[in-house]
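TL;DR need structure tokens for one chain.
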Amino acid sequence: MTAKLDPFAAAPALMKSWMGTSLAVSDSLEPSLVSLVEVRASQINACANCIHMHTTQARQKGETEQRLYLLSAWREAPCYTERERAALAWTEALTRLCDGHAELERARSALNDYFSKEEQVKLTLMINVINGWNRIAVGFGLWFEPAAAKAVQAAAA
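>> reply
TL;DR here they are.
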């Protein structure tokens, strides 16, 4: 895949700010939960760049192959905690808003059982961040190897 536009070159100040916001939001929740949210939203959005990057990063942080492979079928897989299931349901509901709001209401109910109000905001921001990155990557045809992504993150810090 060849980038159709490099957003970091086209709007460096805004992209640096976006990267800083992304890092702050992702650092506000436990790394394993962030990884699951990043990968699941990226699967729904068919963002190959982000699936590749975030599964690689998740493995580096200790995530298991089993949990990564089963993520697209998380409802049937026994390897996720109830908190993770609530986060994944919320991720799917917000990522698929166009499917209607009935699923959103069910997901919100589970979310209230496992996340404080502050954590709900943090999780919602995390879902918005990864959906934003998916749209940037797919829209501009980006492909970053994880090492290159780390360099971009370091430059934005």
